[in-house]
Amino acid sequence: MSLWTDSAVLLRTMAWLDMPKETQLLAGLQSRQMELDLAVEKMYE
């Protein structure tokens, strides 16, 4: 009986590891923030 339980846990774990990662369907439409690399001194002149 304990072998059945071990096999069930092993199969469940294998199925969980093989599941694809969740992907965001709208990832291509999301905005991205850029850094402008401006020096702090230049910003206030």
Q: What portion of residues belong to β-strands?
A: under 5%
Which regions are unreliable across 5 or more consecutive residues at pLDDT < 50?
none
Return the structural class. mainly alpha
Assembly classification: single chain
Q: Count of helices?
A: 2
**Helix-strand pattern, N to C?**
HH
Overall number of strands: 0
Shape: elongated
Distance between the termini: 78 Å
Rg, please? 25 Å
Largest sheet: number of strands, sense, barrel closure: none
Helix content bin: 40-55%
**Averaged pLDDT:** 79
Q: How would you sum up this structure, described in words?
A:
- The protein is mostly helical and 45 residues long.
- It contains two helices and no strands.
- The protein has helices spanning 2-18, 40-43.
Question: Which descriptors apply to this entry?
Answer:
45 residues; mainly alpha; 47% helix; 0% strand; elongated
